[in-house]
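TICKET: design request
STATUS: open
ATTACHED STRUCTURE:
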């Protein structure tokens, strides 16, 4: 897969695929940049912009984008819980989330 293909998949997930599903599934977020945050944070295991210079799509290693895409695909397939991934992301950012 070329870098261009990888970036195309990366943008298609949060811009086209995930927002429509968010409404149907009651996900905690529906905006593309929120989905990107969640997927990237979970791909690196930290606040992504502490690990990758912005813009992430250009500066992340292929393996990071591939992992973020896989997480997005897993959320779409309901094998990963986007709410849990969001909780992880917020914790890495020091944002308290009420239970």
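STATUS: resolved
RESOLUTION: sequence designed for all positions
ATTACHED SEQUENCE:
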């Amino acid at each position: 897969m070329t870098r261009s293909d990888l970036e195309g998949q990366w943008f298609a997930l949060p811009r086209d695929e995930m927002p429509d599903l968010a409404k149907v599934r009651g996900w905690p977020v529906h905006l593309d940049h929120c989905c990107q945050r969640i997927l990237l944070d979970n791909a690196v295991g930290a606040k992504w912009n502490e690990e990758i210079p912005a813009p992430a799509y250009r500066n992340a290693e292929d393996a990071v984008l591939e992992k973020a895409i896989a997480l997005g695909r897993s959320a779409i397939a309901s094998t990963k819980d986007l709410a849990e991934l969001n909780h992880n992301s917020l914790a890495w950012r020091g944002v308290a989330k009420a239970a």
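CLOSING REMARK: Residues 71 and 77 are 10 Å apart (CA to CA). The chain has a mean pLDDT of 94.
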